[in-house]
Amino acid sequence: MFREIDRKKKLLDNKRPLPAYTLKSIRENLLLEWTYNSNAIEGNTLTILETKVVLEGITVGGKTLKEHLEVINHRDAILYVEEIVKNQEPLTEWQMKNIHRLILKGIDDNYAGNYRDQQVIISGAKHTPPESFLIKEQMENLIKWYNDRIEMHPVEKAAMLHIIFVGIHPFIDGNGRTSRLLLNLELMKNGYPPIIIKAENRLKYYSALDKAHTTNNSKDFITLVIEELDKTLDIYLKYI
């Protein structure tokens, strides 16, 4: 299941250290694609070119302040994730809250980085997240699960981290963006490049998640992650 992406990762590892300028160009493009698509999945109406302009510090007429903040905040959250990877920090609840705090900064400061205190329903999904009083315990169990899965393939572990986190749905808003950041955090920690879940694949993405939550069958979601990772590895191998 993971043979091909591991083969490509080995090819990429053999080319290290990677050319600095090329690496910088690929990273900047991925940061743009990651930010645009992750926000678009959640309903942000900025186009990819408008997202690029906002990242450059320019406002776009006719778009809300919230949509502008979602772009800037997501960029800042990616930078924070990169720092965690660089410093080889272990995964903690505190980090997850910090990622979420960055996502909702200036949008909903009361809930930024704080677990929800009320029940939520995931629109269009059969899965219902746990009641709010169960969140703390389930998040602690998630960290324990994560620390116990030493032998699990890192790509599967990254996908399962996303599935379990978004199933708990610990925050009022921003769970999707946070879960995709956590997925890529785990990939990057293990030497893989980040993946981009495309907005155009939103239905496939949500369906695979809901199937994982309601049937405990995670194969479709793990396959989706593998497919997107394969594409990102191809980008690196093409230009480096």
Automatic annotation (TrEMBL):
Residues 91-227 form the Fido domain. The record marks 42 as: Important for autoinhibition of adenylyltransferase activity. Keywords: ATP-binding, Nucleotide-binding. InterPro entries: Fido (IPR003812), Fido-like_dom_sf (IPR036597), Fido_containing (IPR040198). ATP binds at residues 173-180, 205-206. Gene3D superfamilies: Fido-like domain. The active site is at 169. One of its GO terms (molecular function) is ATP binding. It comes from the Bacteria. This is Filamentation induced by cAMP protein fic. The lineage of its organism: Bacteria, Bacillati, Bacillota, Clostridia, Eubacteriales.
